[in-house]
Design a protein that fits this description.
Elements lengths: L2 E5 L2 E3 L5 E8 L6 E8 L6 E6 L6 E3 L7 E6 L4 E6 L8 E9 L7 E3 L3 E5 L2
Parallel strand pairs: 2-11
Antiparallel strand pairs: 1-3, 3-8, 4-5, 4-9, 5-6, 7-8, 9-10, 9-11
């Protein structure tokens, strides 16, 4: 089955770190822009970070800039989200989204999400 699968969520104290992984199953990330979104209870889904299909360009929301890093391991077909200095407001379900560079309407994949809880 063609899909993306997130992992790496969990519970951590404020100031701690987590690394989320997004793995492509039965397709390659090579021609995909990959993004991480998050959704907190009662709130809309928020774009957190993106990385281009080459990995040469990244973007971050203001709320995570300087604390989160998105990267891709082409050899392992995985995109990571390294989250440092976590805050309570980072608590959310984090989703991975992969969109094809040339066919965004046809190839657009979402994962099931992974829960991140930041609490003391």
């Amino acid at each position: 089955q063609v899909q993306v699968v997130e992992s790496g969520g969990g519970s951590v104290q404020p100031g701690g770190s987590l690394r989320l992984s997004c793995a492509a199953s039965r397709f390659s990330f090579n021609l995909y822009r990959v993004a991480w979104y998050r959704q907190a209870p009662g709130q809309e889904r928020e774009l957190v970070a993106t990385i281009t299909y080459t990995g040469g360009s990244t973007n971050y929301s203001d709320s995570v800039k300087g604390r989160f890093t998105i990267s891709r391991d082409g050899g392992r077909n995985i995109v990571y989200l390294q989250m440092n200095n976590l805050k309570a407001e980072d608590t959310a379900v984090y989703y991975c989204n992969a969109v094809h560079r040339w066919r965004p309407g046809q190839f657009d994949y979402w994962g099931q999400g992974t829960q991140v809880i930041v609490s003391s």
